[in-house]
Amino acid sequence: MTGDGDRRAARERARKARSRRGQAIAVISSIVVLGGLGTAILTSSGWPDVRETFFSAESFRTTFPDILRGFWLDIKMFMAVEVIVLIVGLLIAVVRTSRNPALFPIRLLAAAYCDFFRGVPVILLVYLVGFGLPALNLSGIPSDPIILACLALSLAYSAYVAEVYRAGIKSIHPSQVDAALATGLTRIQTLRHVVLPQAIRRVRPPLLNDFISLQKDVALVAMLGIAEAFRIAQIEALSSFNYTPLLAAASLYLLVTIPMARLLDRITDREEINS
Amino acid sequence: MNAATVLEITGVTKSFGDRQILKGIDLEVREHEAIALIGASGSGKSTLLRCVDLLVEIDDGDIFLDGKVITDPSVDPVAVRRKLGFVFQQFNLFPHMTVLENVVLGAVRAHGVPKKEAEERGRALLDRFGLGGREDDRPDQLSGGQQQRVALTRAFAGQPRVLLLDEVTSALDPELVGDVLETVRELKQEGMTMILATHEMSFAREVADSIAFLHEGRIIEQGDPEQVLTDPGQPETRQFLRRLLAAGRI
Predict the structure, then answer these.
(1) What does the alpha-carbon distance between residue B102 and residue B106 come to, in Å, rounded to a whole number?
(2) Closest approach of chain A CAs to the CA of B1, in angstroms?
(3) Which of B208, B182, B183 is nearest to B197 (CA)?
(4) Rounded mean pLDDT of A34-53?
(5) Are strands B194-197 and B162-166 parallel, antiparallel or unpaired?
């Protein structure tokens, strides 16, 4: 039995060698790829001009505070729309998955709503709601472009999110409903305590994915002349013939969306481990 | 035995599409009585139990609980289900809830018991069925046998008039069957009225007061367990038992 210890040590050595070799390959290939790309860009004949137009430290210093203030408006709109979408989307999904015959007309409307607002480009909706609604001259329709912009985004994203919720609800096995009914729950209690908690947990990744999209689509409201980050950056860029402000705005969006994407990864990984 | 009739099934039929699963079922269950439903897969055992719990709507016939019809369209099915308990073959525990939450959900939401009181009772019940200490676990942390015992506790916690058990050991590994049957035995000793669809013949013989043999949607034989299992009157029953014997299931 003396061979056993030796063999185990040999395996251990081989495993360590493999892992060292893997790390070395990763480092070398990273240097080659990233270094190559960097060198290609930095040594290109146009780089000095590009650096001046897109990466001007001077322009960044003077415009960043304004853009940041504008970005605060983006965040506020994002949060407001997010809350609306989470609630409205859930209501639509519940209506669409219910089998109550009294809800049939509402179910039909909900289906038409989802088809329409999922199919129309968000930028078109922003235009239609932002300029079209006030042009109707109806009393009671808000004229504040910020509110109209939030309305347009809510309309579009409620349709996306409703479909995500609906997929989650439909993924819950009917035996769960049987068990809830057999326990003495009503249909509504079954939805509230058994179906929805499981459905929502299951669709957290695609929901978060839609919120990342929403966070950057907020920039579309610039079309209505609202002074949010992208709009301010655009004005600064056009007046100074320097695009650095646009990159400054882009970095702010990334600052929010990248952590959200990492959070999404973590949730997805955890779900995979659990299942 | 002259106890009052708790559940009475008369002339119940049920079809799915053009396949008739139940072809006229008559069955009477008295207080504290346990009736074992035996029969081949597809003979209609599960469907019958689901009809009683109004999870499936019957086509024809009537079912009475404590003398009142429950299959009339004007009857609120929720109120009926609150008087019955159902245990599923696949347990069907709520995976997003703890063991204790599973057990008290019905008491709190369906029976309006204050949460604290329901939890106290739930803990006591879990303790009694050998699940003490597992209150805060999720169902997927338990073995199949433990999950089914939680499901039994959940159904029993609703203080049902009749407990409907749908092949509660069929999804379990053989070594886990014993514990679940022990729990059913305890419920029977408690005086629980029950109908149990089962493939466990020796258990049916021991615990049931009567065995009903279901064949192609009809109860073609019912009687004392000893008699039905050892000296069946119908050729179909004899054939069914011979097959089980050949498969080593008796």
Answers:
(1) 8
(2) 29
(3) B208
(4) 90
(5) parallel
Taking all residues of chain B, what is their mean pLDDT, rounded to a whole number?
Answer: 93
Whole-number pLDDT of residue A173: 96
Q: How far is residue B125 from each of residues A166, B99, B143, B156, measured CA to CA in Å? A: 37, 12, 18, 9
pLDDT number for residue A273: 67
Distance from CA of B245 to the nearest CA of A (A): 32
Residue A275 reports pLDDT greater than 60: no
Please tell me the predicted confidence (pLDDT) of residue B2.
64
Closest Cα partner for B102 from A169, A180, A200, A189? A180
Q: Any idea which of A147-156, A225-234, B27-36, B213-222 has the lowest mean pLDDT?
A: A225-234
> What average pLDDT score do residues A159-187 get?
96
Q: What is the structure's pLDDT at B79? A: 96
Distance of alpha carbon A27 from its chain centroid, rounded?
32
Question: How far B182 CA sits from the closest chain A CA (Å)?
Answer: 22
What DSSP element (H or E) covers B152? helix B144-157
To which residue do tokens 């119940």 refer?
A: B12
Distance, CA of B205 to chain centre: 16
Structure tokens at A179: 């068990």
Instruction: Specify the pTM.
Output: 0.85
Instruction: Name the closest residue on chain A to residue B86, using Cα atoms.
Output: A182
Residue of B nearest to A179 (CA): B92
d(CA A180, CA A160): 29
Nearest residue in chain A measured CA to CA from B101: A193
Of A176, A183, A198, which is closest to B106 when you measure between CB atoms? A183
| Number of A–B residue contacts, CB under 8 Å | 60
**Cα–Cα dist B46/B25, whole Å:** 13
Asked whether the beta carbons of B131 and B143 are under 8 A apart, the reply is no
Question: What tokens were used for B51?
Answer: 């009809």
Q: Which of B88, B82, B52, B80 is nearest to B159 (CA)?
A: B82
pLDDT tens profile B177-191: 988 999 999 999 999
Q: Do A179 and B158 touch (CB under 8 A)?
A: no
Residues of chain B falling short of pLDDT 70? 1-2, 250
